[in-house]
Amino acid sequence: MINCEITYLEIAPLSDPALFAWWLSRMPKSRREKVSSLRHAESQRLSLGVGILLYLALKKQGVDGGDVEIRATEYGQPYLPAHPEIHFSLSHCAPWAMCALGPVPLGCDVERVARGNEKIANRFYHPAEQAYLASIPSGEEWDRAFAEIWTRKESYLKATGRGLSLGMDSFQTIAPQEGVWYEGQRLLGECAAACCAFSENRPHFTRKQVLLGEDGKTVEKA
């Protein structure tokens, strides 16, 4: 069975300078530089948050996440040159950081559920997705559906490895597609999150929240 692990964490504990520094010191050079390049404290915590999740996920695979080389493809998608058998994807939207990791191409995305935009849907969504939204009454339900489609589309683009070079309206996420599998979740009612994986058979998706404790202690909660 193909297992894809999806992990989340809330970044609030990283407001503690000591905990922030403890985790930052364990990140690979590329992540430390990324965090340091960001001006705002919340952006730094979000970047460190996804780094922590990847670090922990790689540790389960027997890979030292603090000493791993991460490169970007010509489309800007991150990958591990020394471990081509491991695929991963990262996303964040305050207050959440998100990581997906597995043995098949995958992507993940988390977005805040806000007021949806019909003009954006008409421009970037596939006709099948537009028709689906047209069947839903306006209001909170429509806004949730808009966000859920957006996260699916973003996760699909990441899974292809091509990112936004592939037109967002060139594919649909409503009807089943052979070899394309989605897993979705709502986080605290504030955000929509999705993971997309490419596999002949549906992978087994596991979803866990990582809780950060003192001195680097972590707890996973299903």
Describe the structure.
This protein has a 5-stranded mixed beta sheet, with helices on one face. Strands 6-8-7 form a 3-stranded antiparallel beta sheet, with helices on one face. The chain has one domain: 4'-phosphopantetheinyl transferase domain (Ribosomal Protein L22, Chain A, Alpha-Beta Complex), CATH 3.90.470. Strand 7 and strand 8 form a beta hairpin. The radius of gyration is 17 Å and the shape is globular. It contains 6 helices and 10 strands. The protein starts with a strand and ends with a strand. The chain is of the alpha+beta class and 222 residues long. 35% of the residues are buried. 33% of the residues lie in helices and 28% in strands. The longest helix has 21 residues.
